[in-house]
Amino acid sequence: MPKITIDGQTIEVAEGTTILKAAGQAGIEIPHLCYHPAFPPEGSCRLCLVEIEGSPKLELSCSTVVREGMVIKTQSEKVIEARRSVLEFLLAEHPMDCPICDKAGDCKLQDYYEAYGLFESKFKEIKEKKDKLVHIGRNLLLDRERCIQCTRCVRFLLEVTKTGELGVFERGIHSIIGFYENEPVNNNYSGNLAEICPVGAITDLDFRFKTRTWFLTSRPSICPLCSRGCAINIEFHKGLARIELGKRVFRIRSRENQSVNKYWICDYGRYSYSYLDEGRIAQPFQVINERRTNLSWERMLFILSEKIKSLRIRKRTSRIVIVLNSALTNEELFLVKRLFIEELGINRIFFSDPPDEKGDGFLLTAERVPNRRGALNLGFNLNVGEEVLKQDKIDLLLIFAAHLAEIMPLGWLSTLANQIESKFLFTSRESGLSRHVDFVGPVTPVAEKAGSFTNVDGLNQSFDPALNPWGQSWPEWKIMINLAKEIPINLRYFGRLNSPETIRKVMAEEKLNFSVNP
Amino acid sequence: MIKLLGYFYEILKGSWITCRHFVVNMWFHTLWFLGIKTKRRGAVTIQYPEEKKEIAHRHRSLHRLMTREDGQPRCVACMLCMTVCPSECIYIEAAEDPDPEIQKYPKTFLIDLSRCCFCGFCVEACPEDALRMDTGKIELATLNREDLIYDLNRLIG
């Protein structure tokens, strides 16, 4: 283990570590543009130069490996001067169109200019004209003037997706990023290119001119669209004082999680976020003869608990059917187990998950629900089908549909609707289903609640709400706990549960496998 | 009783100030009238609104949007004015311009003058010199609030 000194700080790092990584471990940030931790160093931007004692010239910290006793200076006058000069060359051909660039605000070139540049340009020549609007893929737009040839995009396509659509063409000042005719970037991970581009050369058409990055707040969450459970950041606008924006979430970006998705997310997870804002139900309501009457949650849970109580007294809880889905968190599935199965003795429970689609072999899995593994771990039988509907008469039907209502195979509901006495639907969005039920309660999708999922590899991941609940939406665990208190059932047990953390604690006490990775 | 006397005392004090101003100003006006040039001059009331005082050239008045040669707004919808505005009175919606050299133009540009505090930060922030507050229009009162929301057409016009 070599011992090195960086800016007077002596640290010990593993053999073969580069100076840039070692500095990162010591908490010193060395500016860099072309280096990305996921790829081997390229060394084309020349911004990460550092001074090494005994070395005649400055060295690239991204590709120089540490040696025993190395003394490195990252803030010396020589280094700062070199950074300034490198920035000056990078900006010599960079169009100053930050006002219209979607990257402005999280552009690294902009940040480094603020930190180390701040010079007046000495170049009086007119800048080179290049193509400003090149469609290089489904959702990608390339601006060749802004490009600094860091080749992060090229390396991403070579090393991560292994498709290699992009390459560097021409030489010197004329070098451009391009693709062969009729073969643009067309893979399920293209959205990552806009994210790893350190400048605004590759931008996202989906986000183009929608808002500016500094208006957005970023909160961590977990992608609920397949069973991989990729770490994501949800970026949303807090809203304006007087004008309705119409949507909150403007984009989804990947978050680093080495044990699941590294640095990437797929395009399916990146661009399917409209369900968070469109067609949301704000208040519980009752449907009588296709007319809607708004209710409060208290009133609705009172009605539901009265129905359950009357069935319970008449020993007819076998006439209750509960439809679940694998987008419920472990905590909620645990509550289903304790409340509905053990306390109320309901055994007609089945899972109605959206049908599997093709995975892509990298991150996107075939299961389009986030928590099938969790349901299996908790002992649910996912193979029970719609045959439970026919076993006996149904007096009460509870459907937990989350945001999946449109894609859940619930065709049987329209034919059975008239035979079922009362039907409760818990969903977050308007869908055709609300025509067939009597009561609809809005629930929060994954982005608005806390809990934990078990992903396809059996990894438990907890998450916190990234957005505020829409209107009066409630998470499912809150509905179940309040229902238990309303009936009331075993208050000593359910009374102390008031958040996913407390539920998780109880699960751990009951030895239900719950060590959760944050 | 003392309180009551204090009340009348203040009234008398106020009257005294008014009278003093009248006499002093009248004195200087008379001297000026008689052709005696004094250093100090008597106060003059401007007969607003018939008579208007000239506005200083740095005065911040109603906003206007500058235009390019072809009449399109110079604004590129960078939203810096919207960001810097302390009273959140500016709202901009950007759209794609067919010209790749321009790319971005404001589809909607609203300034809500009922919220504006005329601080001029938006003018300072503008990187394109598209927004100025030099129209000299200061009489902005209207009979309803909607008229105080200025859109693109009114701001260019």
Tell me briefly what this model is:
The complex is a heterodimer of chains A (518) and B (157). Chain A has helices spanning 19-25, 77-92, 108-117, 152-159, 191-196, 267-271, 297-313, 330-343, 372-377, 388-391, 412-416, 476-486, 491-494, 500-509; strands at residues 3-6, 9-12, 49-52, 59-60, 71-73, 134-135, 140-142, 166-169, 176-179, 202-204, 216-222, 231-237, 249-254, 285-288, 291-294, 320-324, 349-351, 396-402, 422-427, 439-442, 451-454, 460-463.
Describe the structure.
The complex is a heterodimer of chains A (518) and B (157). Helix content of chain A is 24%, strand content 18%. Chain A is an alpha+beta fold and 518 residues long. The longest helix of chain B has 32 residues, at 2-33. Chain B contains four helices and five strands. In chain B, strand 2 and strand 3 form a beta hairpin. The chains are: A alpha+beta (518), B alpha+beta (157). The interface between A and B is medium-sized, with 19 and 20 residues.
